[in-house]
Amino acid sequence: MRIDAISIFPDFFSVLDISLLGKAREAGLIEFKAHDLRSYTHDRHKTVDDSPYGGGAGMVMKPEPWGEAFDQLLTGNPTVIFTTPAGKKFNQEIAQELSKKQHLVFACGRYEGIDQRVVDYARTKAEVLELSIGDYVLNGGEVAAIAMIEAVCRLIPGVIGNSDSLADESHNDGLLEYPSFTKPQSWRGLEVPEVLLSGHHAEIAAWRKQQSMLRTQQNRPDLL
Ligand code: JEB
């Protein structure tokens, strides 16, 4: 999969050099590049923002640099994702869909967001999604894009070494995960639940299911 990100802060994306995603890139499974929006400007001050039509606080990202970036980057059959607090809520189902695409382009705004015509224009050149990672306010789209990129890339075959881990995740009936424990059996006076040491596979499965349901009831009753 090829992934491009367009941002005035391309350095945010250096976290993608680390860990599993970094390995997947070295292995050639993912090709990623972050592009500086200011490199698509032509004025001395590399201007990317202007005041909003209709008035109001803050600045809006002007369309011209985005147009030039798209002219260069929207080749082949890309899907463009605008990260925005006004987007549809990103979830695992969307991550699954995106993991099948050949080319993703993340458009990451700052300030009060991007001139809406940029989205309309992108729709004439590509499949376009406006997505949010949740109901809280960030200063820009970069952190949201990084979260989406991680969620999508770990679903690409070969990115996660042990594909059992992936298969396991879709096996909990839409409930939250059960709690996990490892050695030592006793730590600072805190014990691992006895049932997990028993070797009774049916009892362990039943306990985990009960814990999953309890957690879901307490933390995410909307899932029940
Ligand atoms: C994404 C962004 C801003 C109103 C308030 C703040 C570009 N879940 C999310 N929260 N915030 C964002 C997001 C996502 N995805 C997000 C892009 C931009 C916030 N801002 C700041 C804009 N409008 C600018």
TrEMBL record:
Q: Which GO terms describe its biological process?
A: tRNA N1-guanine methylation
Do you know which Pfam families this protein is assigned to? Answer: tRNA_m1G_MT (PF01746)
Positions the record marks as coiled coil are none
Q: Start and end of every tRNA methyltransferase TRMD/TRM10-type domain?
A: 1-224
- SUPFAM superfamilies, from UniProt? alpha/beta knot
The Enzyme Commission number assigned here is 2.1.1.228
Which coarse location class applies to the principal site listed for this UniProt protein? cytoplasm
Matching entries from NCBIfam families are given as: PRK00026.1, trmD
Please give the subunit comment from the record: Homodimer.
The family line of this record is: Belongs to the RNA methyltransferase TrmD family.
Q: What is this protein called?
A: tRNA (guanine-N(1)-)-methyltransferase
